[in-house]
């Protein structure tokens, strides 16, 4: 749990419950002070928004030990660090009207709503609490999808972000080569989604729920013996890309005991539609409902030309979920001059999970982000 991890490493923090314009209640953790700070910083600290990926939550950023942990490195460097929990995660299941455990209507959202409601709510709270005029944004996987949506749909949000750093950018997905593609025929139309949604009551639940139901979790199966034999890491490599040298096998059972977090069925369905169409589009409800919502029989694409915030891509050559081909298609869709950096991680086996699990994630990715941030004055 994120609070326990922060307390263990003696990082002082505050907890915020932020209500979005569509009544979802998000829990966000703010690191206010680093134990490694030799003196209190003078003036206003620059704020950084960390946003996780699908199946994750705030604790994903804390899988790395203290010396390699990105939130801690940012706090140690003097930044005001805000760690998000997207709607639907175990940390952010509140709602003004719905009970997430009883009302299936709670789960009728995808990363589109996260982008147009969650991001502006958190960013506005950050600006209000810190007194700054701009923040930095660091997103991973689905956290990058939300960034693309938010900044293309809400023009004013571009002026509130000094720079965005996107790890494993996910927008165009036609070249995805993970077994996740097998879900496309099962979820890529709204009728199929509705069936799956009813069957699962809106979500694929956390490992804790499966532990309670089946007395077993991935962390129990992937004990040290299984890990040494390569049973579990090979499954992860199949899903996300092979990179044995960067896998921390000692920590893998602990990581799998905490992941995945809740995954909404509609999140999967929306991604499957994008894979099937090779487009980065809004959710497709079918021709009739699309006409009502979009005034078009076809679901419209997000217009990445509308993004004006300085943006940086970091991608892995061996990433199955955000493969280089798709990253470059996304890059070409961006407005000229907006993409300030399009960096391939200097490790040919770097995969999707490596951005928060790799032994050298700090050397290969995090340090470059910290260096680049110094170019901007976000406060």
Automatic annotation (TrEMBL):
Native source organism of the sequence: Orchesella cincta (Springtail)
Keywords: Glycoprotein, Hydrolase, Lipid degradation, Lipid metabolism, Signal
InterPro entries: AB_hydrolase_1, AB_hydrolase_fold, Lipase_euk
Keyword Hydrolase: yes
Pfam (any one): Abhydrolase_1
Annotated signal sequence range: none
Protein name as annotated: Lipase
Family: Belongs to the AB hydrolase superfamily. Lipase family.
Active site: 141, 319, 352
Record-annotated AB hydrolase-1 domain positions: 47-181
Keyword Cytoplasm attached: no
Tree of life domain: Eukaryota
One Gene Ontology MF term: hydrolase activity, acting on ester bonds
An annotated GO BP: lipid catabolic process
